[in-house]
Amino acid sequence: MKKLLLSATFLLSTAAMAQAQEFKYQTPPQALQDLLLAPPTPRVSLASDGRTLALLAVQDFPTVAELSQPELRLAGLRFNPRTNGPSRVSYAVGIKLKKLPNGPETEVKGLPAAARISGVSWSPDNKTMAFALTTPGSGLDGRVELWVADVATATARRLLAQPLNDAFGNSFEWVSDSQTLLARAVPAGRGSAPAADAAPTGPTLQESGGGKKSGARTYQDLLKNPADERQFDYYATSQLLKVKLTDGSTQPLGQPGVIQTASPSPDGKYVLLRTRHRPYSYLLPISSFPQRIDVLDLATGAPVQAIADLPLADAVPTNFDAVATGPRGHAWRADVPATLYYVEAQDGGDPKVKADIRDKIFTQAAPFASPPQELAALPMRFGGLTWGNSTLALAEGYRWADRHQTTWQLNPSAPAQPLSVLFDGSSQDTYKDPGTPYEHRNAQGKYVLLTGGPTGHSIYLLGNGASPEGDRPFVDETDLSTKKTTRWWRSEAPAYETPVAILDASGKHRELLTRRESLTEAPNYYLRDASKKTKPVAVTRFANPYAAFGGSFQKQVLHYKRADGVDLSADLYLPVNYKKTDGPLPTLMEAYPVEFKDKNNAGQVSGSPYTFTRLNWASPVFWVTQGYAVLANASIPIVGEGSKEPNDTYTEQLVSSAKAAIDEGTRLGVVDPARVGVMGHSYGAFMTANLLSHSNLFKAGIARSGAYNRTLTPFGFQGEERTFWQAPEVYNAMSPFNYADKMKTPILLIHGEADNNSGTFPIQTERYFSALKGQGATARYVVLPAEAHGYAARENLLHMLWEMDSWLNKYVKAPAPAPAN
């Protein structure tokens, strides 16, 4: 859609205003404004030694003018040509340092006014923090700079005069000596950018043939023509620099190129370089472009070994666990000085091919001249590798078809031995989730498994602790020699507490850093000794952002069943002073469907009844201030067991789940079933349109940034991996666009003008609205200027709340008319 209007644009279905209208920004009731603009809570970053906590003040909502800065959308990336950095970043605007447990909060000095900070990274010795600082500039003089802050003096300084090339993000990394950084910089003297509007020298051409299948999911922001390619090369090309911490002096390493990643080896002697190169694709993002993997000498920048040169990955099947052929995922082994590892498919990358071995893991040690050595052969698709020490590593495998996952224990010193299963089960069986193995940073700044226990063979697992009573996060110790697990600690009601870091695993103290909250207490960080029943010690005292509004919201977790027996849940919020004698209320329901392969897993409880309610811009909870009951996070599982796929009966399960939520609220006497609205964002918007098309449960709906015609995403969407040609009846039945003539319920459609999410192009809402309008449905279409899939600008968010509030008041809150005689 062309960017024609500076303020929100509406396409109204009334006869008097049938054309696009310019409309000024509006603001919602004061309570909604105050809740949206409540002070943001700082972020934190913990030094790996657990001694220092960085408190990062968070940027407030940007204005629509800030969001409308120049933006290039190339190869699946979005960046600002003025700065050569990402165009949509939630910056920190200040840093305070705090020595744990009780040190004062010390403001870091030396930062410029209105600092825009991102990418905070601690040196391996924890004495220095590095970060990117963006200066927007007034023309083409903006830049992203490399800065450092000395922890002892709490003083910041610019380290590198040459601007970073931050188009890919994460443009710098520490070397293990803590005195050197690797940085990707804008090449010196690169000249002016190629003209984006130069007259074409010929048509743009794409071609297929030879029986080669190259279907792709529906991506946005792709290259479209040779002019785009030239611009991409200009802005994505960087020079790798070695930067000294002492004085900011630099040494170029290798040649300029489209360097996506540059990672130093643990011993600081080599650099692993991933460089993208032509031929580019107009159908796929940069993640599929040809790539060259090289190792450079970090001291001299000289080439050491060309590891791989991989072609365009344009023939990967569209299945979720399909991968490209050839070696992939090259990275450093974290626990030894300089050894690479990578994975290679043994089934042609196609999960539909029968194969006993899906993937093999290989390693190759410095100086990389000897052939790679096979470490392990996996019967499932490789999902990740966590290094521990010379005799311990953990490999993960997964299979999408039945949502199965396995974790194996490996001995790196005894490669190609039979796999030893450590954990095995469904990825959707959250009640049996053993947790995530905990990693700590070693002296080289790389993350490896934390080991300990009486025999030294224990690892530690941090988990959400899903249970029928809700999530209860935990820390476990598992002895790998006996497979015995001991629970260190578990969150206890009436609080919700999550482990953040293990600070001491010696067995004497078992010290943890946790994040603790409750229904009435805003989240804060605590030190806790899991070996003692003592109260945790607060290390932050972040204020309750809603103290001026009563401090918290009435919240109750509901548990109920669907007609087919599947267990469901929802978070019920009620107005602060609501009493049951007040009777049933107008209600707003919000949900996001999820696919499952087992109805027992689908019915498992998620979330906790004890979490503090922090409203983000997308929340439905705002409307408790306007007299509504709110059913938030209503579970809508879409189940397909055995050979059946979940979406085979999508509509039936969708409507049944929504009806069960309304029925439960009605049974409790708080929901007026004649005055219920439904809302959703993205796949939740798709859900909303389908619910209004296939049921009479709701008085109105609000659908934000959705997709409504599945033939426009023909190679799969969300959890559906079948293509349109494999399951046309499913695609058609699930597309609310096909049922525009059945829509009898008012629907408010909102979409970000610059949506960047796969499949949710703004044209999805544009054409859906046109179909609804053509069929005489009651609909309203709002385009939010400059917004991506998630919304950010203050003016747009306030206007969005006004639109939603006005819509709900008009079609849901107002008493329903009496039925005709």
Number of helices: 9
Mean pLDDT: 93
Estimate the helix proportion, in percent.
10-25%
Q: How many β strands by DSSP?
A: 49
Bulk shape? globular
Q: Let me know the largest β-sheet.
A: 10 strands, mixed
Q: Rounded to an integer, what's the Rg over CA atoms? A: 28 Å
**SSE-based structural type:** mainly beta
Strand order of the largest sheet: 2-1-49-48-47-46-42-44-41-40
- The separation of the N and C termini measures 47 Å
Strand content: 35-45%
Low-confidence stretches: 1-18
How do the strands and helices of this protein lay out in sequence?
Layout: E1 9-12, E2 21-22, H1 30-36, E3 43-46, E4 52-58, H2 64-67, E5 72-74, E6 77-80, E7 85-86, E8 92-99, E9 105-107, E10 117-122, E11 128-135, E12 143-150, E13 155-160, E14 172-174, E15 180-185, H3 226-236, E16 238-244, E17 250-264, E18 270-276, E19 291-297, E20 303-310, E21 327-332, E22 339-345, E23 359-365, E24 373-378, E25 381-389, E26 392-399, E27 404-410, E28 420-426, E29 436-437, E30 439-441, E31 447-449, E32 451-452, E33 458-463, E34 474-479, E35 484-490, E36 495-504, E37 511-518, E38 524-529, E39 537-538, E40 554-561, E41 567-574, E42 585-591, E43 594-596, H4 599-602, E44 629-634, E45 637-639, H5 650-667, E46 671-681, H6 683-694, E47 700-704, H7 728-733, E48 747-752, H8 762-774, E49 779-784, H9 794-813
Parallel strand pairs: 42-44, 42-46, 43-45, 46-47, 47-48, 48-49
Antiparallel strand pairs: 1-2, 1-49, 3-4, 4-8, 5-6, 6-7, 8-9, 10-11, 11-12, 12-13, 14-15, 15-16, 16-17, 17-18, 18-19, 19-20, 21-22, 22-23, 23-24, 25-26, 26-27, 27-28, 29-33, 30-31, 32-33, 33-34, 34-35, 36-37, 37-38, 38-39, 40-41, 41-44
Helix pairs in contact: 5-6
